[in-house]
Each structure stands twice: as C-alpha cells, then as structure tokens.
Amino acid sequence: MEQKNLLIGQSVRRMDAVGKVTGETPYPGDIDLPDQLWMKVRFSDRVHARVTAIDASRAEAYPGVVAVFTAKDVPVNEYGLSMPDQPVLCGPGSGKEGADIVRCVSDQVALVVAETEEIAAAAVKLIDITYEDLPIVSDIFEAMADGAPQLHAHAPNNILIHYKLRHGDIDSAWDQADVIVEGEYRTGYQEHAYLQPEAGLGYIDDEGRVTVLVAGQWVHEDREQVAHALGLPEEQVRIIYPAIGGAFGGREDMSVQITLALAAMKLRRPIKIIWSREESMIGHHKRHPMVIRARWGATREGRVVAAEATAYADAGGYAYTTTKVLGNAHLMVSGPYEIPNVRVDTYGVYTNNIPTGAFRGFGGPQGAFAAEGQMNKLAEALNMDPVELRALNVLREGSLMSVGSPLPPGVTLDKVLAEGAAQSGYWQSTEDGWKRLPVEQPANPARRRGVGMAMGFKNVGFSFGAPEQNWATVEIHGGAEIERVVVHEAGADVGQGAHTVFVQMVAAATGVPIEKVELIGHDTAYTGNSGSTSASRMTFMAGNAIKGAAELAMEKWQHEERPAIATYQYRPPRTTAYDPETGQADPNFAYGYMAQFVEVEVDLETGQVEVVRVVSAHDVGRAINPTQIEGQVEGGVIQALGYAIMEDLITQDGRVLNPYLSTYLIPTIWDVPREVKSVILEYADPRGPWGARGMAEMPFIPLAPAITAAVCDATGVWIDRIPLTPERVVLSLREQGIGAI
Fold first, then answer.
1. 596-640 per-position pLDDT tens digit
2. I want to staple 332 with a disulfide (CB 3.0 to 4.6 A). Which of 190, 367, 456, 623 is the partner?
3. Bridge partners of 475?
4. What's the CATH number of domain 31-134+198-274, 3.90.1170.50, 1.20.140.10, 3.30.1490.180, 1.10.10.10?
C-alpha cells in the first residue's frame, strides 16, 4: 500500500503541458471538418422589446448563405441551467409563451449559416427585425418596486429568489453588544475573460448522433439541455470537450451548444462558430453585482453576538445559477464565525441587465466582502487586533453555523488562521494574543503602505440538497502483470490540471507508474456523469469515484479477471435545503478553509493601489499535486486582485459600455504582486480521497476585503465598494481631506 501512494503528494508534470506550450493541443476553435459551414449569431438590438417580425429575405439571398434560423425553427424553444426561463432564439413562431420577448442584450434572435465565416458575418447584419419596445428596468431596487415592469410571470416584483435566515433572537441581542458597526458594501460585475472565447463545431457522428464539440464544464448537463431544446432523446445527442481554454464558471451555462446542434441537425453538415471577444463579453453571464447592508454587534471582550444583513443581487434578464449562487452568499455573509444571533435576507432580482451566474467563489466573494469588512471594522472599534478577534470567534469542531448545524468533521479554521498569520511576517503571537508588527513606510510621502487580512470558508461540492454524485470506470489490462490501466472519468479539465490529478490517483490506487494510465474523458459517448467542474468539487468527487472503481477493479484482478473492469458511483453524504422561514439547513458535506494577509501601497495623489505582497494560507486536506495547488493559489489571487482593484464592467440602461479587453482592464504580468506566498496546510478531510479537500475557489474569496482593510490601514479610509479604481479611491481620499488639493 505504501508503494501505491507514492504518487500522492508529488508534483507530477501536467499531462497536457507540452501540447499546450507548443500549440499542438487543439481547442474547439482549432478543429475543422470537411464540407463544414460557418455560423454567426444575430444578438438582440434591444434591451427589452417584443420581436414582432423577422424578415430574413435579404440575408437568405446573399451569395453563399445556406440557411437562416429563427425561433420558429427551434423544436423546444427554452433552456436554462436552474430553470428553463430563456428562449434559445427570441421571436415569434415557436409556440413558447414569452419567447418573442428579448429581455437583455445577451438574447439571440437569429442564426445565419454560410459557406464562409465572412459571408455569415456580412449576411447576419442584413436580417431586418421589427421590435416593439418595452419599458426598461436596470436598477434592482426599482425592479422590486410595485408597478415596475415585470420581466417574468413567475417572479412578482421581479424577485427571482428570497432566502431567509433566522438564528437566535436578533432583536434582543443588540442589548448585549457594547459595540455595533454598520456598513453598506457594493461589489461589481466581473467578466470571466478566459483565454478562449466561445467556439465549437456541430456535426452528425458515425452513429447518427447530433454531436457538439465545444468547451464547457459538464458534458452531461450540456447534453441534457441540447436534447431538451431539440426535442431529442439524450442518447441521440453527444457532447465532446477538446482542450478548454479556461472557464471559472463562465461555461456552466449554454452559449453555442444548442444553436450549433440545431444547425447541424437541420442541415446534416458540420457547422462551426467562433465568437469574437465582444460577442463573448455580451453573450455569456457575469459575476453578480451585489449590495449588502450589514449591522454587527460585539461585546467589549470581542465576542460577536449579533449579525444582521440584507443582500440584493442583480440576476439580469434570466435565472442562470442565481438561486444557487445566492444560496452560498446567504450562508457566507455572516462569515466563518460562531455568532449566536443572526438574521439575513437575500434577494435575487431580475432586471434588463446582462445575466449573471457562476464565477469562481460562487457568491462567496460577495458574502466575504461584507462579513470580513464588518469583522475588520469591529476590530477597529474595539481597538483589538483583527487576527485576535477572529481567533475568538472562528468556527471550530462542533460549533454551530448560522443555519443551526455544525460544519462537517475536520474543521481547521483556527489552524489556518494561526499558521497564515505566523507565516505572513506581519503578525506575531504573544502572551497577550496576536499583535501586528509595524509596517515600514515608503520614502515618498505621497505613497503609504498598509497591511490587512481576511479569511473565509467555501463549500466543496453541490449544496442545499442538490443531487451529488460522480461515476468512474477503471479497466485493468494485462496478463501476469498489469500492462495498462484505462480510466473513464468525464470531469472537465478547464485548465486547472484535473486530468493530471485523475491519472495520478488512478496510478496510486492501482500501483502502476503514471505512464501506464490512459484517461478517457470529456465525451458523453464513453463516460458516466461526473457532475460539473465547479464548486471546487472535482478532485474530491472524481477522486472518490476513481478510488472506489480502482479498488473494485483490483479485487477482480486479484481473482484473475482479465481484463478487470469496474464501475463505481460515489455519493457523498446528503445535504438539505434552507428551511423557507428559518433558513435552517445542513448545507454542505465538505469545506475548504483559508486566510489571507495582504500588503498594499497607495498613491495618495492618483488613487492607484498596488498590491505588494499576498500570503495565502489554505488547508487542502492532502496536496495531491503541490505545484498545481500553488498554481491555483497564484491564479486565484491574481484573478481576485483584478476583481478588487481594476475590473470595472460598466453598464447603462442594460447595455455594456466596455465590451472589449482594451477598455475592460484585467491584470497583466505588471500587476502581479512582488510575492504571492502559498501556505499549504494538510489536515486530512475524513471524507476526501486520500484526505484531499477541494480548493480551486478558495484563494479568491477573502482577497478583496483583505485589500480594503490594507488600504484603510494605509490611509485611514474605509472604501466599501469595489473595484478600487484610482478614481474611486482618490475621490474617497479627497472626501476625507487626504492627498492633493
């Protein structure tokens, strides 16, 4: 057994590294088939309107155009990951009530298929669409008001979801508080900005299946939605993922899958599409912007006794994963602390803005921005060190969360906090508790340095009663000795290195060198349902499925079966949904824990914030591949840095004003901190494979509040709205009389 586990904990080189570095690895946009056609989409010209007529005659007559498809051509004109509230194509003729209404600029109205991409791009502009404009609602508070335009019949006052949480007696708890702090926290949109925009190829495979070759996060869910929209049995649809150029939650929802399948089914020829960056930024969802109003109270000894919050999130025109994202935010807005009295109300609101959905952290970053901001303000009001305050209140083994249940076994928040603080170099533990060390200031008086910290927790796996499972099949081939091992596992590798970890785990479980392992994945024709690559779940879930299948296959091998083949479905402990009135739940079966410590430098004249150093501490349970974990930490930190200080997607009356990477700024190599220190702790999760926890989202969650705390430490000014753009920072400083006149 010891020999079998040698690969666990080793930084094995990624199996896709050479192909991606050399450019040999094909992504969806790189793949062509003989006799293929090209498709272009006509997005909505309006934010909110009824499509009364579509005249495609000019486009159809354009030389080289093969077909134009509109709503009337879609068999079942609806789709949606959590609910089917969006038309595949908006317009008359599909028989689906409400499908003739566009509710945002992301809506698609028509498709042009032509012999070349250039012809399709020219012809799609020739489609004449007649609209009847409808009232626009682009503000969440106006959308909730009586008399506001209603976007969907199932959501009175445009309220898609309202979660409640009632824990303890919040009304009497305020009398116990010696200090009460309040704040309103605002977070913005964030664009996923993955390297590869949406692209794909639809065709009919050798067995007559409608096949879509695309980049996504869950092949079986893509298949289910495509089959539904086309009115086909699922076995008549096949989804294949080649290499995936990033996802971060942005590929959970449909983009080109259904339309490619529709065109391929109708024309029986291969159909290709590649979105431009502008089409990508308009055509897929964003991170939810949120407004969170919070009030917290603590005793003078530092015990937090009450936390109250109301959170509002802009869902945009359709549901996408809003109900699930806000389930997370609802839990995390009171932080990873044992607070006896909590009241939270969380609202997801339809507007005519661009839709919002899954993005790394999945509601956790917004919730943590408010919760950690409140903790840091409480520390300031109590004149107490922020690490010491957290050490007093953090959830421990057996502590009850705000939902009335304990965390699953293996709680290490206190250990992560202590080790991260110690290794940060900014704090030291004394007999009187944690103390901050002084920060050396720059020689330039216009620049000030500060240090801040925040922490958090994040679920691993699907939550709140969502069905959770993962299938894997392991085949062991050979005679007297094992010659090769084949694993079928559909879990998507979206660039994070999941497939390398799968192969490591198979090799460890069967005791063979990694070179003898072959992975078959990303294809519904050859794999069982893995669930989504989201919720930091894939190592945990696929690892348990692979481990189970490998153990069963090894038993067969020992009994002389050749080949020895076994299939295993891993199902974790069940979770439960929020009680609709109290919010009580057993929400998750596993968590990841993290704490971050940040040093920033603020230019008082320009408002520029430079993140100098980040120390990011994580309990990963067991580091299957330590180098890949470091990569996740570094990547997550830089992505969170963009969210916190520069990524500012601007919308006006439902339209995106900066749908280009020239005007929507993301971090570059010049914005990377001088040091990102990964502190990797390994306290085995009792339920994880080899003790591993998920951790891909964890580095993102606490960074923004740690940065705002560091900015306050440097300047004395709390800024509770992100991103901290130079303009926003400099205006906040001037309001407090700081900086140039």
1. 999 999 999 999 999 999 999 999 999 999 999 999 999 999 999
2. 367
3. 486, 565
4. 3.90.1170.50
